[in-house]
Design brief:
By secondary structure, the chain is an alpha+beta fold. It has 2 domains: about 5-85, Arc Repressor Mutant, subunit A (Orthogonal Bundle), CATH 1.10.10; about 95-195, Arc Repressor Mutant, subunit A (Orthogonal Bundle), CATH 1.10.10.10. Helices cover about 60% and strands about 15% of the residues. The strands form 2 sheets. It has a 3-stranded antiparallel β-sheet, with helices on both faces. It has a 3-stranded antiparallel β-sheet with strand order 4-6-5. β2 and β3 form a beta hairpin. α2 (about 25-40) packs across α4, α6 (about 105-115) packs across α8 (about 130-145) and α9 packs antiparallel against α10.
């Protein structure tokens, strides 16, 4: 992955999209900031990059475009957002997990299902304080993404995480430390139990 000279040399100093990019040296510095932010927050979307780095949207779009063209960053559209990742690190499923963890509502639902496998929509609504339509929409999306399976018994549905819950917990710990602080006591116990069983949660 090219971050040093390769990244700097890749910048087209002749192009100025908005008139706010400033000097070549400033452009290089901001492009490195954008890259490092994406590396530390894989699955992030454009508006959050702009907000957290305090950069104009046109500038961030320019930098991300250059980073994609030189192979440092890749993107994928899932749902409403195009999300960005450092290239060459994450596979397809990992990208899907990271995209969900980058969004507050589906992330909280996913983590609650890990902590309470077999929970229902009513359980989720009671525990997380979300409306029934919000839970229904987000659960449908999590099922479509292949992260959660729905088990129907009559009129009632329950949910379980598909695949390795430990991987999801590790991504939370690594890339969302504030979220991990809230969930670690519940997730650690679940992940340790799954590890002792020697099989991924299904």
């Amino acid at each position: 992955m090219r971050v040093g000279g390769g990244l700097i040399n890749s910048i087209d100093r002749r192009k100025d999209l908005t008139g706010t990019l400033g000097s070549s040296e400033e452009t290089v510095t901001n492009q490195q900031r954008v890259y490092q932010y994406i590396k530390q927050h894989p699955g992030v979307h454009l508006r959050k990059v702009c907000r957290d780095l305090g950069l104009a949207m046109g500038d961030v779009q320019y930098h991300i475009d250059r980073l994609e063209k030189n192979g440092s960053v890749k993107s994928a559209r899932r749902g409403l957002y195009r999300q960005f990742y450092p290239a060459g690190i994450f596979g397809e499923r990992e990208g899907v997990v990271l995209s969900v963890l980058a969004q507050a509502t589906p992330r909280e639902l996913l983590l609650h299902i890990i902590a309470a496998p077999g929970c229902s929509q009513e359980d989720l609504a009671s525990s997380l304080g979300l409306s029934a339509p919000s839970i229904s929409w987000n659960m449908k999306r999590l099922v479509q993404l292949g992260l959660v399976e729905q088990q129907q018994k009559g009129r009632f549905a329950s949910y379980r995480v598909i695949g390795n819950a430990g991987e999801i917990a590790e991504f939370v710990r690594s890339y969302h430390p504030g979220v991990w602080d809230r969930w670690s006591s519940r997730l650690t116990e679940i992940v340790l139990a799954l590890s002792e069983e020697g099989t991924p949660q299904r």
